[in-house]
Specification:
Length: about 170
């Protein structure tokens, strides 16, 4: 069951950023120190004993709790970003959108073959972005130890796009 306190701080914004989308606004979670602590501990809990080396946060809201999660797990933090944001040598992954394609990028050598990686984003929707991120991680030879989301929009079946690694979502809708 969804934690009523955490749930109460997430705001539904209809028709944002475009008509038909109900945007899940996490600003209320960010604004509360109590909520940040609680969310971080719920994100970290299933992975405390899993020897996570790296938390990979997905642009851009995945950076917010991703960093706190990395801190809680005493792990490194690596950014996966939209094209044109990261300097240096990069790895790039294409993925399909509803209309057209997009790309995400990660810095080369940010992840080692021996790493156990936890992928984090705020919302699991269709799963396309998280899957593209998993493809970047696989290309490094590292192990995906799990996926971590604040919430899962279950009606979009994003979980089906992800592999066998454990998936932790604090809230389900
Ligand atoms: P996905 O469809 O799972 O690839 O989601 C794409 C990205 O958009 C993810 O980074 C999500 O955080 C974000 N996203 C998708 N749907 C929503 C929503 N309803 N509210 C807020 N963020 C969303």
């Amino acid at each position: 069951m969804n934690d009523p306190y955490i749930n109460s701080l997430i705001r539904d914004v209809p028709d944002f950023p475009k008509k038909g989308i109900v945007f899940k606004d996490i600003s209320g979670l960010l604004a509360s120190a109590k909520a940040r602590t609680l969310v971080t501990s719920k994100l970290a809990q299933p992975f405390l004993a899993k020897n996570i080396d790296v938390v990979v946060g997905i642009e851009s809201r995945g950076f917010l709790f991703g960093m706190l999660l990395a801190e809680a797990l005493n792990a490194r933090f690596v950014m996966v970003r939209k094209p044109g944001k990261l300097p240096g040598e990069l790895m790039t992954q294409d993925y399909d959108l509803e209309y057209g394609t997009d790309q995400i990028q990660m810095q080369k050598n940010a992840i080692k073959e021996t790493d156990h990686v936890l992928i984090h984003d705020d919302v699991l929707a269709t799963g396309g972005t998280a899957r593209a991120t998993s493809q970047l991680i696989h290309a490094t030879g590292a192990t995906i130890a799990g996926y971590s989301f604040i919430m899962d929009l279950t009606f979009l079946n994003g979980k089906e796009k992800l592999g066998d690694a454990p998936i932790n979502s604090i809230l389900s809708y």
